[in-house]
């Protein structure tokens, strides 16, 4: 049994096909198939139902995937556990939302790299809901997301990093209009409702009984800001104090009464297989978070 074979098995279970799994683990489809064959021979059990067009796990397969997750998590934690008390080693796969990538995370990663040169970090971007699913599946070790909004994957825990407020942003020509006039009269550029931030905004609009005229629905905060700056409508976005300093060319008002806020958190699995590395990352982000 090899760790690469176990990673292939996990990838097939996660992505639902040998081809997509092969792309994920950077192997050929035939190599992934050989991994499964070798595991089945070693365990003396069929891991997939071959009568189906797409791979479907057998009962033995489900158990094998569960144990594979545990073995991989233990292996990935070894380097960090045996390092010197003041030095971190190993690999940490991080997911992050766009606002964190444009905010506190780069400075936090630079500080970690300077203090722990043997720590290897990989970073991927995405929306909160997507990143949470990838943490649950073991594809990412941790993710910096907004605070989970139901429904969200089971078995995740979160550590609060910092907080941001939600703000109404409008073209500067709209200065003087109150928030109800802005949101009900101008085209509304909506934050994608697949994102947890988008769901939070949508829920608050309903609570305030505000009917908006959606003209666009975008998953990029930078794109939304550019659309508003070009006079194409009004929007609601989460902003840090640093973001606010950069938006003096727009009309900006608090959203909600009291103002709606969101927590940005570090998500990881309940077992916390890389707890030491995750804690170091959380501390670094908190130190560099906008205030």
UniProtKB/TrEMBL annotation:
Assigned GO CC terms: cytosol
GO MF annotations in UniProt: DNA binding; DNA-binding transcription factor activity
Highest rank taxon of the organism: Bacteria
Listed InterPro entries: HTH-type_LysR_regulators (IPR050950), LysR_HTH_N (IPR000847), LysR_subst-bd (IPR005119), WH-like_DNA-bd_sf (IPR036388), WH_DNA-bd_sf (IPR036390)
Record carries keyword DNA-binding: yes
Entry keywords, A to Z: DNA-binding, Transcription, Transcription regulation
Keyword Transcription regulation belongs to the record: yes
Domain HTH lysR-type stretches: 1-58
Family recorded in the similarity comment: Belongs to the LysR transcriptional regulatory family.
Protein name as annotated: LysR family transcriptional regulator
Organism annotation: Pseudomonas entomophila
């Amino acid at each position: 049994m090899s760790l690469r074979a176990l990673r292939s098995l996990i990838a097939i279970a996660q992505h639902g096909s040998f081809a997509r799994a092969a792309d994920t683990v950077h192997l050929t489809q035939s190599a992934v198939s050989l991994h499964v064959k070798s595991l089945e021979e070693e365990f003396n059990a069929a891991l997939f139902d071959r009568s189906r067009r797409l791979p479907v796990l057998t009962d033995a397969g489900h158990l094998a995937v569960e144990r594979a997750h545990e073995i991989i998590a233990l292996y990935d934690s070894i380097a960090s556990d045996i390092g010197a008390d003041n030095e971190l080693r190993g690999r940490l796969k991080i997911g992050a939302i766009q606002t964190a990538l444009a905010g506190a995370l780069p400075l936090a990663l630079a500080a970690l790299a300077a203090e722990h040169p043997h720590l290897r970090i990989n970073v991927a971007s995405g929306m909160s809901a997507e990143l949470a699913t990838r943490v649950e599946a073991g594809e990412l070790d941790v993710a910096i997301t907004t605070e989970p909004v139901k429904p969200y994957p089971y078995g995740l825990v979160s550590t609060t990093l910092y907080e941001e407020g939600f703000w109404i942003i409008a073209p500067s020509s709209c200065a003087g209009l109150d928030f109800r006039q802005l949101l009900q009269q101008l085209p509304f550029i909506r934050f994608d409702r697949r994102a947890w931030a988008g769901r939070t905004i949508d829920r608050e609009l309903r609570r305030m009984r505000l009917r908006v005229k959606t003209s666009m629905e975008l998953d990029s905060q930078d794109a939304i800001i550019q659309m508003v700056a070009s006079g194409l409508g009004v929007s609601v976005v989460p902003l840090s104090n640093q973001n606010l300093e950069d938006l003096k060319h727009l009309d900006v008002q608090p959203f909600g009464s009291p103002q709606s806020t969101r927590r940005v958190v570090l998500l990881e699995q309940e077992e916390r297989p890389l707890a030491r590395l995750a804690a170091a990352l959380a501390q670094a982000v908190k130190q560099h978070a906008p205030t």
